[in-house]
## 1
Amino acid sequence: MSVTSTPVRVFLLPGRDRRVGSGHPWAYSNEINMDAATKALTAGEVATLHRVDGKPLGVGTFNPHTLISFRVLAQNPTTPIDRTFFETRLKAALALRERLYDEPYYRLVHGEADGLGGLVVDRYGDIVVIQTATAGMERLLPELLAALDIVINPSAVMLRNDGSFRRLENLETYVRPAKGTVPESVEVHERGLRFPADVTAGQKTGWFLDQRDARNFVAPLAKGGRMLDVYSHIGGFAIAALKAGAERAIAVDSSAKALELAELAGKWNDVSDRLSVVKAEAFGELERLRSAGDRFRVVACDPPAFVRIAKELKTGLKGYRKLVRLAAAVVEPGGFLFIASCSHNVTVEAFASEVAAGVQRAGRDGRILRSTGAGPDHPVHPRLPESAYLKGLVLQLD
Ligand code: SAH
């Protein structure tokens, strides 16, 4: 079916319309009347969603084979989901980012909060990296790409569709350019700093746009002292700290490729002589530094998600506690600890409680200076507060 023809109709079960009716953008498979015809619809097809009595609740995409079956894209059911639709959404998303940032380096589209559930678009200047997470967005890629050309006309577009979340929608994983030639490392600008993002194979889309605000707050705390950037990736926290006047910084990561780029970033930003990189597992390296008596003015720990699925909650929480205990032990008296969690399943409260326990087990006292989260180019849909996955705390330790 072409996306411009009349969409098929999908019906909710009796009494299951309250959530979507109140503006929530999802309907789950067990809320939908999965009769044979509905079950047989093509995954990702554009459809309208209806109450039992026929009242339409919106238009979006439908996948009968996944838990979040219906994704509402527009509450007005007559909205055509075509190139013009994407153009309108992209223009609004762009206007917001242009208001927030001086330079075109940001997450341009962050899923539902930008009215485009299942889609992430990161912009690195003239180069755009796209991730689609739903069968619906995958099918709509041609319309999206055409709209992107009209709205920002990037020189190159990379499809980074290698995330494991795609399995939930039975989507294949792949990485390929959709337009132009994507260089091996793409230059990212952040508050006067330059970083080389590996958009083809690096973590996320090559750079952690989401920690921009945290980097900005943490960096100057290291002025005049030593800084330890654990789980450094390409050295975002370390290089920001060096630029803000830290004497020395050490970037620790288990990925040789990430550290190679961190060293390159050191050169680009003229701080190489004060930056060291260490390829090591974080917990072991923190233990080693503690035994060696090494202490730091600032320790930043920005690990990968310890809790990827709900089942991992208990062990993951213990992991955060242990990480804080080990990291707090190498913070000099009066120094600072930044600790982050990007686990969806860990609440702000649970995280804070593990952080407090870890600090206490390290035999330290201290105070929370700031709670951090993803920057405003990662907005949150008001009906999906739990999608605010990133949390962080900055503490001073006595
Ligand atoms: N702080 C970074 C982002 C960190 S992403 C920034 O601001 O850009 C998490 C990093 O942790 C990745 O680079 C990954 O290679 C690294 N990593 C994952 N497991 C690790 C481990 N056990 N020990 C050390 N590094 C690890």
Note: Residues 83-100 form the longest helix (18 residues).
## 2
Amino acid sequence: MVTEIDHVAIAVHDLEAAIDYYRTTFGVEPVHRERIEKDGVDEALIKVADSYIQLLTPYTDTSPLAKYMEKNGEGIHHIGYRVADCDEVLEHVKAEGARVVDEHPRTGSRGTTVAFLHPKTAQGTLIELVEE
Ligand code: CO
């Protein structure tokens, strides 16, 4: 059901500084940048093999990520699992009784279809299903 790690998302205060860190430390550049208005975040994707490091920063105080970072600061925020069919996996997860953040798949960055699963029933990890 899960085919690959799509991305590991890292919450950062300063996106440009984080990009600089990755450039200086690992010699890599973002391959994609996008403002995701529904989530109130700016992202930069750095490709690692077939997966990404997703650097995320809130651009508005009302972003859920801004609230999360007030409490938890910077660091790993969620993990994205690549799936062939987001809707099918989401329905399976719900049928198994696990909590979800998104009741239905929605559009993510890069035109992907995504749904978040609640950390409460996922060992404290916020999980994002990503269908390309
Ligand atoms: Co993500």
Note: The longest helix spans residues 15-26.
